[in-house]
Amino acid sequence: MFITSMENAYSLKGKNAIVTGGNKGIGLGIATALAHQGANVAIFARDEASAKEVIKDFSAKYEGKFSFYKTDISNMQNCKDSVAKCIADYKTIDVLVNNAGIGTGGSLLDMDENMTSWFECFDVDLHGAVRMCYLVGKHMRDTEKGGHIINITSNAGEIINTPFLTAYAAAKAALNHFTRCLAAEVAPFGIRVNAIAPGFTKSNFTKGIPEEFVKVIAATVPINRFAEAVEIGALAAYLASDASDAMTGAVLTIDGGYSLQH
Ligand SMILES: NC(=O)c1ccc[n+]([C@@H]2O[C@H](COP(=O)([O-])OP(=O)(O)OC[C@H]3O[C@@H](n4cnc5c(N)ncnc54)[C@H](OP(=O)(O)O)[C@@H]3O)[C@@H](O)[C@H]2O)c1
Fold first, then answer.
1. DSSP class of residue 162?
2. Could you tell me if 119 and 179 are in contact, meaning their C-beta atoms sit under 8 angstroms apart?
3. 219 Cβ partners below 8 Å, 6+ apart?
4. How is the chain split among helix, strand and coil, in percent rounded to 5?
């Protein structure tokens, strides 16, 4: 539904949202922002313990309904089972955030002959999102209620932000263009598809970087810091809301200006 005034424009009250990888890092920032705006949130991830903690915390703080569906997004049957259970529990899915991802590094020329790490990376970072779009997109079309899909890509999909992230960067670039193509394909069903391309953001992903090196990297970012996960969440909350109803097929970079200089 589009807005004609700012009345409740950013509200997500009563909306049902799936966030893949909503238990940690950027996904947790996104789940938090959506829950704060009134959404019910279903977390799809593998690690049950951290997801259960998040659900306990959200249930104490927010009014919505929060659940966890143990899912490996690189496995179609897993995705299918979890989406079916989630639909049975929530009846409709209004928002899908494809956030789960892995940051496979290493040189292409040093991979094994089967290029195992290349395909592992694509299977999660590109095909994991595609599987979820296929399953949830069909539901959004068939219920005739439409919905909002948000793919979390990376500024590495547009620029070389770190060397030897070729598989990751190529998967994210593909996910950016997949976002545009799917947006055009499903617009007639009232389904919007947008992408958020973050830059360096505090998460488990970046936790392993030594503190001295974090400072060196931060100094290359015009805002001189890493983004907070909830800042990515705030943009996702906007994209999930009716306030952004005129926007589809967009890839929004949020990287403190880093890609301006690269
Ligand atoms: N942090 C950054 O600087 C940065 C920058 C640009 C883009 N991004 C993107 O932001 C997204 C989130 O990354 P993050 O930085 O928050 O990393 P993170 O802290 O390592 O979190 C990754 C999340 O993905 C889930 N996940 C990984 N593989 C999965 C699988 N096969 N099936 C289901 N869930 C899976 C993990 O949950 P389980 O382990 O429980 O499965 C976890 O919740 C990724 O798509 C990443 O590419 C991050």
1. S
2. no
3. none
4. 50, 15, 35
> Amino acid identity of 26?
I
Which tokens hold the place of 242?
């009716």
12-53 residue pLDDT tens: 999 999 999 999 999 999 999 999 999 999 999 999 999 999
For residue 203, report the distance from its CA to the centre of ligand 1, in Å. 8
Give the pLDDT confidence score for residue 262 in this predicted structure: 81
Alpha helices per DSSP H over 192-259: 204-207, 211-218, 229-240
- Burial of residue 39 (CB within 10 Å: 0-12, 13-18, 19+) is buried
The angle that helices 116-125 and 166-186 make with each other, rounded to 10 degrees, is 30
Of all protein residues, whose CA lies closest to atom 36 belonging to ligand 1? 21
154 phi and psi angles, rounded to 5 deg: -170, 155
Residue 175 in contact with ligand 1 by CB distance below 6 A: no
Q: Atom 7 in ligand 1: which residue has the minimum CA distance? A: 154
Hey, whose CA ends up nearest to atom 17 of ligand 1? 205
Cα three-residue angle 257-96-45, rounded to 5 degrees: 90
Cα 4–chain centre separation: 28
Q: Does ligand 1 have an atom closer than 6 angstroms to the CB of 46?
A: yes
User: What CATH homologous superfamily does 16-257 map to?
Assistant: NAD(P)-binding Rossmann-like Domain (3.40.50.720)
* Helix or strand holding residue 119 (H, E): helix 116-125
Catalytic residue among 62, 69, 168, 238: 168
Q: Is the CB of 73 under 6 A from ligand 1?
A: yes
Q: Is 258 a catalytic residue?
A: no
Q: Is the pTM of this model over 0.85?
A: yes
- The residues with which 147 forms a beta bridge, in sequence order, are 191
Q: Name the token pair of 120.
A: 């592992």
Query: In the chain, what are the domain boundaries?
Result: 16-257
